[in-house]
Design brief:
Blueprint: H1 24-45, E1 53-57, H2 63-72, E2 77-82, E3 97-100, E4 113-119, H3 128-138, E5 139-150, H4 161-176, H5 187-193, E6 197-204, E7 207-209, H6 213-224, H7 226-231, H8 236-247, E8 252-254, E9 258-264
Length: 271
């Protein structure tokens, strides 16, 4: 099937942390290292294998899309789309396809994929409900949708230390940009209302050691967001202390939960 995607004019406008930043490569690689193992384990449980047609929506650094190329090819298809695909240039060499695409307004093929996946994408998009409906329409009959999104879920308010204080300010900054830190918890009911079946959900709270790859990822996040955080009233000294907490290999921290929801489109061609 040939497909000419719409080109996005919005670039990074949905996101608090643009991928144009000079250290975005490192931050995205660390994010993949932190979250890929759970994503991959669940995708394997869901049966992703050679021959499956896969859509990675909002592919970011591309680490999960690279895994999909190894899992679904040959015989399948891996399409990775992002408003800023600069970090996906190697995917065609792995057999994948790359498209610069605005998830809100771009052309997403309908009824075309056996597996559709997003991770930490929809919560950042103000039009997330519209995008969700478009992703459901992209599923072929019997296809599986897997959504992984962050959600405060009662944890944000009790996160201790400077890291917690900075996180709360960061969450406010994302919501001012159109994100929602409470949307994902309602996804199971939302997918049911969209007609999906076999709906499952889980939440997991990342607990990590200072100096670990996940700690380094958050350290870079606070560096990138420094001006925004200070503009929200966070004292530079608090941000410095948060960096120190993240570097302390004797300390342990936790981040807000990751909510994973997966469901299947009915087998009927009319569903």
């Amino acid at each position: 099937m040939s497909w000419s995607p719409s080109i996005s004019s919005s670039g990074d406008s949905y996101y608090t942390l643009p991928n144009t930043w000079e250290l975005a490569d490192e931050r995205l690689a660390l994010l993949g290292a932190a979250y890929d193992p759970a994503s991959i384990a669940l995708a394997r449980r869901l049966g992703v294998r050679a021959g499956w047609r896969c859509l990675e929506a909002g592919a970011g650094g591309g680490s999960f899309a690279r895994w999909l190329c190894g899992a679904a090819l040959p015989g399948g298809r891996v399409l990775a789309v992002d408003a800023d695909p600069r970090h996906l240039a190697d995917l065609p060499g792995l057999g994948g396809e790359v498209a610069e695409l605005d998830l809100v307004s771009g052309d997403i093929p309908e009824r075309a994929f056996d597996f559709v996946h997003t991770r930490f994408v929809l919560l950042h998009i103000a039009e997330r409900e519209d995008v969700l409906e478009r992703l459901v329409r992209a599923l072929a009959p019997g296809g599986v949708l897997l959504l992984e999104e962050g959600d405060g879920l009662g944890v944000l308010d009790v996160m201790p230390g400077a890291f917690g204080a900075v996180w709360r300010a960061f969450a406010r900054s994302t919501e001012q940009a159109g994100a929602s830190q409470s949307w994902a918890r309602n996804l199971p009911a939302r997918l049911a209302s969209l007609g999906l079946v076999d709906i499952h959900a889980e939440a997991d709270i990342p607990i990590f050691r200072g100096g670990s790859p996940m700690a380094r990822m958050w350290d870079l996040t606070w560096t990138q967001a420094q001006d925004t955080l200070v503009g929200l009233g966070v004292a530079p000294e608090t941000i410095t202390t948060a960096h120190a907490e993240l570097a302390d290999e004797q300390g342990w921290l936790y981040a807000p939960p990751t909510i994973r929801v997966w469901a299947r489109k009915g087998d009927s061609p009319s569903s």
